[in-house]
Amino acid sequence: EIVLTQSPGTLSLSPGERATLSCRASQSVSNNLAWYQQKPGQAPRLLIYGASSRATGTPARFSCSGSGTDFTLTISRLEPEDFAVYYCQHYGRSHATFGQGTQVDIK
Amino acid sequence: QVQLQESGPGLVKPSQTLSLTCTVSGGSITSGDYYWTWIRQQPGKGLEWIGYIYYSGSTYYNPSLTSRVTMSLDKSKNQFSLSLSSVTAADTAVYYCSRSPVCGPDCYTKWFDPWGQGTLVTVSS
């Protein structure tokens, strides 16, 4: 099973600041990585797939880079609605697993 | 725009079988383009992929749950279902249904989009 480790666990930032979230895989996942946003009481929402492709409706301030084992989700300027938990997920040649999440809090 | 909605009992006794249904609207589960998927989120924990069923009836389950999981389709109602047997308190979770684009050989699943709103199932006597 591929283990995804997200860091940091919590990120405390102010609106307008840049957020950088990390996802590291225990072995290469190529570019088979997705990112989700989850707000309290809601289901996760797909943001990014294929490591860098934005899903329909994902604002351009969300971008992702990386390949292999190390990936970064960047939110260029945090909007109030961006404060949430973010999960990475790998897919492909083995069953899907998720990272444990990074919570982006308002500072 | 496809929407998914989970339904089923919110409380299940230990050792019994958890049964949930996902109703799909705005799209057909007989589309060959998607795997119909279940995912759960235990309280305060992360997300766990349970498995999927394809329109043909073929299934693939998470190896950690495969001995207890069964998924089925009801094409007439555009629904798919999850059964999880011999439940314990560890199976208490919010259960989500979703869909994943079909992928080729040597590929088990892709990303999940959209998701249902989720339903909390508590295992307790």
> Can you write the helix and strand succession of chain A as a string?
EEEEEEEEEEE
Major beta sheet summary of chain B:
6 strands, mixed
Span of the ends, CA to CA of chain A: 35 Å
Q: How much of the polypeptide of chain A forms β-strand, as a percent range?
A: over 45%
Number of helical segments of chain A?
A: 0
Topology pattern of chain B, helix = H, strand = E: EEEEEEEEEE
Q: What structural class is derived from the secondary structure elements of chain A?
A: mainly beta
**Apparent shape of chain A:** globular
Helix content of chain B: under 10%
- Determine the number of helices of chain B (DSSP H or I, runs of at least 4 residues): 0
Whole-number mean pLDDT of chain B:
95
Give the strand order, joined by hyphens, for the main sheet of chain B. Answer: 2-10-9-4-5-6
Structural class of chain B: mainly beta
Rg of chain A: 13 Å
Q: Helix fraction of chain A? A: under 10%
For the termini of chain B, the CA-CA separation is 39 Å
Low-confidence stretches of chain A: none
Q: Describe the biggest sheet of chain A?
A: 7 strands, mixed
Shape of chain B: globular
Oligomeric state of the chains present here: heterodimer
What's the rounded overall pLDDT mean of chain A? 95
Give the topology.
The complex is a heterodimer of chains A (107) and B (125).
Chain A: E1 4-7, E2 10-13, E3 19-25, E4 33-38, E5 45-49, E6 53-54, E7 62-67, E8 70-75, E9 85-90, E10 97-98, E11 102-106
Chain B: E1 3-7, E2 11-12, E3 18-25, E4 34-41, E5 47-53, E6 59-61, E7 69-74, E8 79-84, E9 93-101, E10 119-123
Parallel strand pairs in B: 2-10
Antiparallel strand pairs in B: 1-3, 3-8, 4-5, 4-9, 5-6, 7-8, 9-10
How would you characterize the overall build of this protein?
- The complex is a heterodimer of chains A (107) and B (125).
- With 107 residues, chain A is mainly β.
- In chain A, strands 2, 4, 5, 6, 9, 10 and 11 form a seven-stranded mixed beta sheet that branches. A four-stranded antiparallel beta sheet of chain A has the order 1-3-8-7, with no helix packed on it.
- The N and C termini of chain A lie far apart (35 Å).
- The model of chain A has no long low-confidence stretch (mean pLDDT 95).
- Chain B has 125 residues and is mainly β.
- Chain B is 0% helix and 47% strand.
- Chain B has no helices and ten strands.
- At the A-B interface, strand 5 and strand 10 of A face strand 5 of B.
